[in-house]
């Protein structure tokens, strides 16, 4: 069974109606003008930039292993490319069953439970990956 990522009836042109992280699956934005925020407002200084998002179910034991069925853990990969062609990749994890009771916090509070980072070097050497589990406290 293929995961149903992407929009589930939300208006595609208005990201302010998107209600979960997997609505961004397959989203990309580029062009000569500035990029836009969730409400459609232009973000100054982003002319020539591009970004894209991919969301996948991953194994809670090994987040490099993707799954075709729901695992309770989503890996969100955001790739941003500068006007000079330099690419930065950021990955995050979103769990349905995090380390904290997310309902106990305000509804607009994000809780970070894991940080995954990949560093690429200009000399062409192999990328380095690292990650750390957090205590699942809300971000300030």
How would you characterize the overall build of this protein?
- The protein has 140 residues and is mainly beta.
- It has one domain.
- It is built from no helices and seven strands.
- The protein has strands at 28-29, 50-58, 66-67, 73-81, 87-95, 114-119, 128-133.
- Strands 1, 2, 3, 4, 5, 6 and 7 form a seven-stranded antiparallel sheet that branches.
- Strand 6 (114-119) and strand 7 (128-133) form a beta hairpin.
- The chain is flat and about 40 Å long.
- It starts with 27 loop residues before the first strand and ends in a 7-residue tail after the last strand.
- The relative contact order is 0.13.
- Residues 99-109 have low confidence and may be disordered.
Distance between the termini: 38 Å
User: Biggest sheet, open or closed, and with what strands and sense?
Assistant: 7 strands, antiparallel
Strand content: 25-35%
Structural class designation: mainly beta
**Quick one: overall form?**
flat
Give the H and E element order.
EEEEEEE
Low-confidence residue ranges? 99-109
Continuous helix count: 0
Task: Report the count of strand segments.
Answer: 7
Number of domains: 1
Q: Quick check: average pLDDT?
A: 75
Q: What proportion of the residues is helical, as a percent range?
A: under 10%
- What integer value in Å does the Rg equal? 16 Å
